[in-house]
Input
Amino acid sequence: MNTEEIAKTSPDIVIVAETHADIAARETLLDRAMGPKRRKKSSEKLRRGRRPSEGLAFVARDEAGAVVGTVRLWDVRLGEGGPAALLLGPLAVDPAVKSAGIGSALMRHAVAEAGRLGHRAVLLVGDAPYYARFGFDADKTGQLSMPGPYERERFLALELVAGALDDARGVLKAAGRKLKSERTRLAA
Output
């Protein structure tokens, strides 16, 4: 499925490519779901000043068209001059509709699209029991690290291509498209 197609998660929810018009709703949702400390996380250091990876920013909409979920993937390098990978996050669902399968649907859609677009690996910092069902684990992140503080056991990876992380080592580095102005910085 490409990002122009609609993925149905239930009769009332669809997953679509994020648009510029979704920015305010996404930011409000992230604040409500993750709290004010979300901008201080190590993952944020890799996202700051960047745009999501091309074609890998999605929202879930309810039947009224409101944004009830979001996920984005970001281009990173595995160490200085290392191979490319993606950093997933944040994944968030409106607390009013938690446990409806929206987060799982967003994850499946994002990972499938990353694979379809030819990406080789996805990393994230998150709850291992939750992300294990999508194939993420800490086995392949042993020689990698995040910039700044993070909990090692929450640093997880999924190889989309077998062996993609075999020789990966070093600190993750931001890569990909930079934001062009202060106004668009708020869109990240």
